[in-house]
């Protein structure tokens, strides 16, 4: 089986079909894969194709990191011009990630999927027979209602606080409250724009993964916080939450902020923005909200993604079970 293309072919990332009408003839044009293919250019072509297809910036950033990691690994390998070399190099790379980097099984799954798609796009042979490994399935962790209250109320103002510190605390309290009351992803929260909020309807228009729009709701207590925040903030740009420079906050800042307030609240569990999202879904389910409604609020494309929350609340499950058995 020949390995090197006579001319570059580009394959649709979604269908693996040739999108340039390239020739199917192959000839050997170099001593190794890195000579035969301009990997940096091929990577940029692939990522540009993903951007055109409305993949999120976070997804594209992740794909770039994964593909560049494998490219660096290939540069240290003893190159040969056949597909067996590619397959063996990929297996050595997976072993390296597991043994040396101690990455999770889910990350191995992601690396396999991304690298295979990239090779298909560039019409590079060698990984067709690689089977996608199984992902580990663990139940999402969440806070109970009391822990959520402790977290949010860990930001109460003090009399000696300066006006700036009071405004700072108000902003952070609204952030925590919104994450829990709407189930927003942290990437969605930090890029929220002021004009996407409808105070009269208590809704927020969200541009989520895959550039898909959805509407989320917030409750009366969040509305009061929002009105207080907007009345005391002098927002000049588009974003609802900004730093001193007027730029929107980073996801990393939100993660560190939540960690700090969780410690202040005496919560020993690991608390992250995503755990607040899990808590939102779990508590809605516990209170009888239909899972398809939760799916819509979370912005999940597939119900199977939302259904993992049905396994979370064992206390509720036992209550329903005992009630049914008494009938």
Offer a few descriptive terms.
327 residues, mainly alpha, three-stranded antiparallel sheet, 3 strands, globular
CATH topology of the largest domain, which one? hpI Integrase, Chain A
- What class would the helix/strand composition place it in? mainly alpha
| Radius of gyration, in angstroms, nearest whole number | 25 Å
What about the largest sheet?
A: 3 strands, antiparallel
Number of discrete domains: 2
Mean pLDDT: 82
What is the CATH architecture assignment of the largest domain?
Orthogonal Bundle
Roughly how much helix do the residues carry, as a percent range? 40-55%
Distance between the termini: 68 Å
Principal-axis shape equals: globular
Q: Give the strand order, joined by hyphens, for the main sheet.
A: 1-2-3
Order of helices and strands: HHHHHHHHEEEHHHHHH
List the total number of helices. Answer: 14
CATH superfamily of the largest domain: Intergrase catalytic core
Low-confidence stretches: 1-10, 14-30
CATH top level of the largest domain is: Mainly Alpha
Number of strands: 3
Q: Please state roughly what percent of the residues sit in beta strands, choosing from under 5%, 5-15%, 15-25%, 25-35%, 35-45% or over 45%.
A: under 5%
């Amino acid at each position: 089986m020949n390995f090197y293309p006579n001319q570059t072919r580009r394959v649709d990332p979604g269908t693996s079909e040739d999108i340039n009408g390239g020739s199917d003839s192959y000839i050997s044009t170099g001593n190794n894969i890195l000579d035969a293919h301009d990997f940096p250019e091929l990577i940029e072509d692939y990522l540009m194709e993903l951007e055109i297809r409305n993949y999120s910036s976070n997804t594209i950033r992740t794909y770039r990191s994964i593909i560049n990691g494998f490219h660096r690994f290939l540069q240290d390998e003893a190159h040969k011009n056949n597909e067996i070399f590619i397959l063996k190099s990929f297996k050595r790379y997976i072993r390296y990630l597991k043994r040396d980097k101690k990455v999770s099984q889910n990350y191995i799954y992601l690396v396999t999927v991304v690298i295979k798609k990239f090779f298909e796009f560039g019409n590079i042979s060698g990984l067709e027979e690689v089977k996608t490994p199984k992902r580990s399935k663990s139940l999402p962790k969440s806070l109970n209602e009391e822990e959520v209250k402790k977290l949010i109320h860990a930001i109460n103002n003090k009399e000696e606080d300066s006006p700036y510190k009071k405004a700072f605390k108000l902003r952070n309290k609204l952030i925590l409250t919104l994450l829990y009351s709407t189930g927003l992803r942290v990437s969605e929260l930090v890029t929220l724009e002021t004009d996407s909020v409808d105070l009269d309807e208590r809704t927020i228009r969200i541009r989520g993964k895959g550039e898909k729009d959805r509407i989320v709701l917030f409750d009366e207590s969040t509305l009061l916080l929002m009105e207080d925040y907007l009345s005391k903030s002098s927002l000049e740009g588009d974003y609802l939450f900004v730093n001193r420079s007027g730029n929107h906050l980073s996801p990393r800042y939100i993660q560190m902020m939540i960690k700090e307030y969780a410690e202040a609240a005496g919560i020993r569990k690991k608390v992250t923005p995503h755990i607040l999202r899990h808590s939102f879904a779990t508590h809605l389910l516990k209170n009888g909200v239909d899972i398809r409604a939760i799916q819509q609020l979370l912005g999940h494309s597939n119900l199977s993604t939302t259904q993992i929350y049905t396994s979370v609340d064992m206390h509720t499950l036992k209550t329903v079970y005992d009630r049914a058995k008494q009938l």
